[in-house]
């Protein structure tokens, strides 16, 4: 990371879009647009010439599209943060998930049907600038070697010696709720496929994503998992053997009948500038299941999930968070950790086993069959 502004390369085949993004980013004193490129091949050359701190990469370009550019870039610059700039379409969603799997750090959707030109710029500003700053800050944090432990490991250990870590938990886990944002799709792709088909409790997930994107994320996870993964639908029974992902632009909660809980969706006000919000799901889980909640907070910007974890902790539930070293951005899990709410702070590679360990208590037989 260079001293001074965050050196940013913009790659887009549209002259208008390059100008818009450049104007937006240049308006922030912490960001320096060092170059622009009209296609992937030019971008790869300019990366070598200008050594950017971060790349904003258009997904749809002629000759060499965003995914091909990303794959070539990763071979020469495996750690350079890349934010994909994609359209809010089915094709854009699939391409974005492919790019995230190929090593993109995050994505921003292009504004569509938002009204005026100024509104489009404001939408880009709200989405793109915070992500650039968060990923640039992440690059500034030095990491330890192959063990995956963060350099500030003593601080992590001090946090995990909090009362949350030392308390005795007696209530069996009845539901797992997961919250994630930046870096979340890849984190979920590591966790969910490792869960066995006879996993004993339902799982509900909030991943910060727009409509359509959550649908394809659920489909992709379902293809690689023994458990059934689907987008949450109003009135669907929350049963073991199923994983529900909150649909984009909808908060997801649980019905108030514990014996036969159902998925509930609504479009209430955003929380933490998010809809779906992790806090909304976590509060609902705490209200319905009390001490029977296991919450998992994965990589992500901001602190969505913190207030929900407070409710879960008050109700006697358990909380596991991803550690700093394995997180793309340690915002959400870091906030929970710093608040002393985490029962465990673990590398991503250890979280599935921790979920399994905490859900092995024998439970009452449920009045429904575990069905895919």
Write the layout of secondary structure elements.
Elements lengths: L5 E6 L3 H12 L4 E7 L2 H11 L3 E5 L7 H11 L5 E5 L3 H12 L4 E4 L7 H24 L12 H8 L2 H4 L8 E6 L3 H8 L11 E5 L5 H11 L4 E4 L10 E4 L5 E4 L8 E4 L11 H12 L3 E5 L8 H10 L2 E5 L9 H7 L5 E3 L1 H11 L14
Parallel strand pairs: 1-2, 1-3, 3-4, 4-5, 6-7, 6-12, 7-9, 8-9, 12-13, 13-14
Antiparallel strand pairs: 10-11
Helix pairs in contact: 1-5, 2-3, 10-11
Summary, kept brief:
This protein is of the alpha/beta class and 372 residues long.
Defining key terms:
372 residues, five-stranded parallel β-sheet, seven-stranded parallel β-sheet, disordered C terminus, Rossmann fold, 13 helices, 2 domains
How would you portray this structure in words?
This protein has 372 residues and is an alpha/beta fold. It folds into 2 domains: 6-140, Rossmann fold, CATH 3.40.50.2300; 153-358, Rossmann fold (3-Layer(aba) Sandwich), CATH 3.40.50.180. The chain is built from 13 helices and 14 strands. It has a 7-stranded parallel beta sheet with strand order 8-9-7-6-12-13-14, sandwiched between helices. Strands 2-1-3-4-5 form a 5-stranded parallel beta sheet, with helices on both faces. Strands 10-11 form a two-stranded antiparallel sheet. The longest helix is centred in the middle third of the chain and has 24 residues, at 117-140. The N and C termini lie far apart (48 Å).
């Amino acid at each position: 990371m260079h001293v001074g502004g965050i050196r940013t390369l913009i790659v887009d085949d549209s002259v208008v879009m390059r100008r818009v993004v450049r104007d937006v980013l240049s308006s922030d004193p912490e960001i320096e647009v060092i170059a622009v490129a009209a296609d992937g091949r030019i971008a790869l050359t300019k990366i070598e010439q200008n050594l950017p701190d971060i790349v904003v990469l258009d997904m749809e370009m002629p000759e060499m599209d965003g995914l091909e550019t990303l794959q070539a870039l990763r071979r020469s610059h495996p750690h350079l943060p890349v934010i994909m700039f994609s359209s809010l379409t089915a094709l854009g969603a699939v391409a974005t998930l492919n790019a995230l799997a190929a090593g993109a750090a995050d994505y921003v959707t292009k504004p569509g049907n938002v009204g005026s030109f100024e509104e489009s710029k404001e939408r880009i500003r709200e989405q793109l600038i915070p992500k650039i700053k968060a990923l640039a800050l992440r690059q500034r944090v030095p990491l330890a070697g192959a063990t995956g432990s963060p350099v500030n490991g003593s601080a992590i250990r001090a946090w995990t010696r909090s009362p949350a870590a030392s308390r005795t938990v007696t209530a069996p886990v009845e539901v797992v709720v997961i919250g994630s944002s930046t870096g979340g799709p890849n984190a979920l792709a590591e966790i969910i496929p490792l869960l066995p088909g006879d996993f004993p409790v339902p799982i509900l997930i909030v991943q910060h994503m727009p409509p359509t994107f959550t649908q394809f994320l659920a489909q992709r996870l379902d293809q690689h998992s023994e458990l059934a993964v689907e987008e949450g639908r109003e009135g669907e029974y929350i049963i073991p053997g199923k994983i529900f992902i909150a649909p984009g632009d909808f908060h997801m909660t649980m019905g108030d009948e514990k014996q036969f809980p159902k998925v509930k969706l609504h479009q209430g006000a955003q929380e933490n500038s998010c809809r779906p919000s992790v806090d909304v799901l976590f509060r609902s889980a705490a209200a319905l299941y009390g001490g029977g909640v296991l919450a998992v907070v994965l990589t992500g910007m901001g602190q969505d999930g913190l207030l929900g974890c407070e409710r879960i902790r008050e109700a006697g539930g358990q909380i596991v968070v991803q550690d700093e070293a394995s997180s793309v951005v340690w915002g959400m899990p870091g906030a929970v950790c710093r608040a002393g709410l985490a029962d465990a702070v673990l590398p991503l590679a250890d979280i599935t086993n921790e979920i399994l360990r905490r859900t092995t208590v024998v439970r009452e037989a449920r009045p429904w069959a575990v069905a895919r």
